[in-house]
Amino acid sequence: MRGWAAVPRPDRLSALDAAFLDLETVRAPLHVGWTMRLAGPAPSLAALRRHVAGRLDAVPRLRRRVVEPALGLADPHWADDAGFDVARHVHAVDLPAPAGTAELEAAAGLLLGTPLDPARPLWRLTLVRGLPDGFAVVGQAHHALVDGVAAVELAGLLLDPAGVARLPRRPAPGWEPAPAPAAGPALARAGTRRARSAAGLIRADPADVPGLVAAAGRLAAPAPPTALEAMTGPERRAAFAATALEPLRDAAREHGATVNDALLTAAAFALRGALARRGDVPPAVRALVPASTRGAGDAAGGNRISFLAVDLPLGGGEPARVLRTVRDRTRARKRAGDAGAADLLLRAADALPAPGRRATARAAARRARFTLVVSNVPGPDLPLALLGREVTGAWPAVPLLDGQALSIGALSYAGRLHVGVVGDAQAVPDTDRIARDLEAALGALSVPAAPARTPWRERAEARRALRRSA
Length: 470
Known about the structure:
Chloramphenicol Acetyltransferase; seven-stranded mixed β-sheet
């Protein structure tokens, strides 16, 4: 045991990190994505690679690949890629002229449907050239590596505040891959960690168990299948929407709601239109809503999320009324402690060896009943820049689980809410129309509520009308 002290400790994946590997299929690559649009001339590919290489030391996992121990006895972990080369991860494409937003959306969809190489570190950046008013960067990082919040943090490592000159960083001299953890110590540590996880669950408050059972029951409760649960393959379509953030936030507050409630409400209106075009409008659809459990001191990377299942009403009607319904349903799920119960379930999975964890993840995915994921991640308030070029827009891309055909992700950045719609290319060829409907619904929700017509206001208006007619 004493000799093991010098052996590197494995940088292990949590049960939730590993679950995203367990749930990935050929037609459902589970990487988080984003599309950044930037002003100014595009940098050269060599300059972008140098820039990225100069910042890799801040996030060691960007040079690491996933190692799955034999027989699943030890934990899957991140290990330095001995053949790491930034050129394998930073690429460039040129759009045919004339190129605009539609061509950028098509390029983003093509890239988002391209899986990452599991034998290499699980991320990729693509410089997209040929836009008339700037360029774009499409990024991908596997969900095993990052959740939505961590993806924003990782993207932020490449960026600087706009208008602030920064000296280029250079890679630390002499980076060498660390030796892989020895199998014996790794296996022993895995056993110790699982025993500790199991002991922690035994010590958990028994009062949590009914909440866990109830939360799992709500997620597995029957829900009518829709035409948006029909994945055909890995090909994707992407579309973008955006709206001013402050008016939306102010209008939501008038109803005691949040920006996230407003996003879910806008999604309900867009889904109603999408399903109506398919001749299929159920009373509601269930959205899976990620909830961050990331603390202020948590390191970048990995997953710190739980989930809420919220039924979105599709009856239409006045936007403010639908917003209040969504607000009430979201509050009910939070009061019931659904996110905490899901977090407890994930901690339970952490006590299992790999085969049990994998079986648990796949069984849970089969039992879950939801139509789409709707995710909202807070981003930076101030403008950022890449190599001196300002980022003018940033749209996230939420991956599709096998069997789902649509996802909606939102990111607040520099005073605007940017919404990315990702769909199965065959099942949802109308992602652009869904994005337009989302944008229109967000605009309608941003209009301040009309003042209530109190009796004194009605009497005052009647007096003014009499004076005008006199």
